[in-house]
Design goal:
Blueprint (H helix, E strand, L loop, with lengths): L6 E6 L1 H18 L4 E6 L10 E3 L1 H8 L10 H21 L5 E6 L1 H11 L8 E5 L7 H4 L5 E4 L9 H27 L10 E7 L4 H13 L2 E7 L3 H11 L5 E4 L4 H7 L12 H5 L3 E3 L6 E4 L14 E5 L2 E5 L2 H18 L6 E6 L16 H15 L5 E5 L6 H19 L2
Parallel strand pairs: 1-2, 1-4, 2-3, 4-5, 5-6, 7-8, 7-9, 9-10, 10-14, 14-15
Antiparallel strand pairs: 11-13, 12-13
Length: about 425
């Protein structure tokens, strides 16, 4: 049962940073003395302090570990505390007993706090003040919406700078918790029946024009549309929301992340890509947008082995290489195999192929036009899905053509109707 009081979970290693956490707690109370502040100790050693609501031994017990924590290597200790803290925080969130969560830490504390936060629903408020927040935070944030705040100085004793950073963090998390609580309290049943169905669409710069047409058509026809930038994290986020039941269908027009997975680019979404909708039996149309390219960073970061390939500088931060005929053939095989392996309702899945171009730069006359490679991709998909109930549709247009875009959007609505009639 949801609590009538706004409460915030505070997670960290209190054996090393108790002073800083107590300061954070005091600043949170400055904003609202009626707050519930639940301190959760995920440190190596037990700390005895009246402010700690959930002691380290309770976290250890929740992990199932029954031995001596001091005997564990650091990495195993971190995994144990993540397991226990996750179980506790998930229970608090499931019961509606917390409205936000915050952590402070260096690399170890950030690892623990972020791992716990990644298991909470997307849009549940999450904030970490971290010494590593100015570096690559992708391993901490993953496909979730964790807010990272750089501590500037180490979290090792209070000083003017750290106090100011923690002051800002306290204000932010209290505001986030109050906004989240108010939003849930104001939720009302949708007038006139069911809420809108959520549809995920994948997009890249080179498929934007087509995606925009499809998005606007779906919105005009009563769908709530979520567009995901196909940068690896975007694809993982969509798969996660599908798994959580927050999306009800997919217009997966831009599957470029599979090319990065295959060739070694920077935008891979991993082997879970193209699986969640299929496993859930949801309506989905899959296409081949931007499979003509693999993504790297600035030009000087492109691996030496690719320098003989067709290179295209999308902008100073993103450099592309053209997928080869053999790579396209393998991509087609992987797409068809992944769909076959995971589809529980193959009649609700279709693959649409725009035969005049799979991105803005692969149409005739553009830098990545390669009819042979594209045909290898199309042929592999058709061959891989032959004999299944997954329909393959070839359309004589390019992926950004307005007519094509409206056509796939209309067909997705028909698949929704088909599912609803079952």
């Amino acid at each position: 049962m949801a609590s009538s009081k706004i409460s915030i979970a505070v997670i960290g290693t209190f054996d090393t940073k108790l002073e800083e956490f107590l300061y954070l707690r005091s600043r949170m109370f400055e904003h609202d003395p009626s707050l519930g502040v639940i301190l959760i100790d995920a440190g190596r050693s037990e700390v005895d302090h009246e402010a700690i609501a959930i002691r380290q031994r309770l976290v250890r017990e929740a992990s199932g570990f029954r031995g001596d924590l001091s005997s564990l290597p650091r990495s195993d200790l971190v995994k144990t505390m993540i397991s226990g803290a996750t179980a506790i925080v998930r229970q608090l969130q499931d019961r509606g007993e917390i409205q936000a969560i915050i952590g402070l830490g260096g690399s170890c504390g950030t690892t623990i706090a972020s791992a716990v936060m990644r298991q909470l629903p997307v849009t549940f408020p999450k904030l970490i003040v971290s010494t590593v927040a100015s570096s690559d935070t992708s391993s901490y944030v993953g496909e979730t919406d964790i807010t990272m705040m750089y501590s500037v100085v180490d979290i090792a004793g209070l000083n003017e700078v750290l106090r100011a950073v923690v002051d800002n963090a306290a204000a932010a998390v209290v505001g986030m918790a109050k906004a989240s609580y108010a939003k849930r309290a104001d939720l009302k049943p949708v007038e006139g029946g069911e809420a809108k169905k959520g549809v995920g669409i994948t997009m890249f710069g080179v498929t934007t024009r087509g995606v925009d047409v499809a998005r606007k058509w779906l919105e005009r026809n009563g769908f709530e549309v979520y567009v995901f930038h196909a940068t690896g994290a975007g694809g993982r986020a969509m798969e996660r929301l599908l798994t959580e039941g927050r999306l009800h269908g997919v217009l997966d027009l831009t599957t470029t992340e599979l090319a990065d997975e295959l060739v070694g680019g920077v935008f891979s979404a991993g082997e879970g890509r193209l699986t969640a909708a299929a496993k859930a039996g949801l309506p989905q149309i899959v296409s081949v947008g931007a499979l003509d390219m693999v993504n790297f960073g600035p030009k000087d970061t492109v691996p030496q082995k690719f320098l003989g390939r067709r290179i295209y500088e999308h902008n100073p931060s993103v450099t592309l290489i053209r997928t080869s005929e053999q790579e396209c053939k393998e991509l087609g095989r992987r797409i068809s195999q992944r769909l076959k392996d995971n589809c529980i309702e193959p009649g609700l899945t279709e693959v649409w192929l725009p035969t005049r171009g799979i991105s803005a730069i692969s149409i005739e006359g553009q830098a990545y036009y390669d009819k042979v490679a594209d045909e290898a991709l199309f042929a592999a998909i058709k061959r891989g899905l032959e004999g299944t109930s997954i329909r393959v549709v070839e359309v004589d247009s390019d992926i950004n053509d307005a007519g094509w875009s409206e056509q796939v959007a209309r067909r997705l609505r028909e698949l929704f109707d088909k599912k609803g009639g079952k």
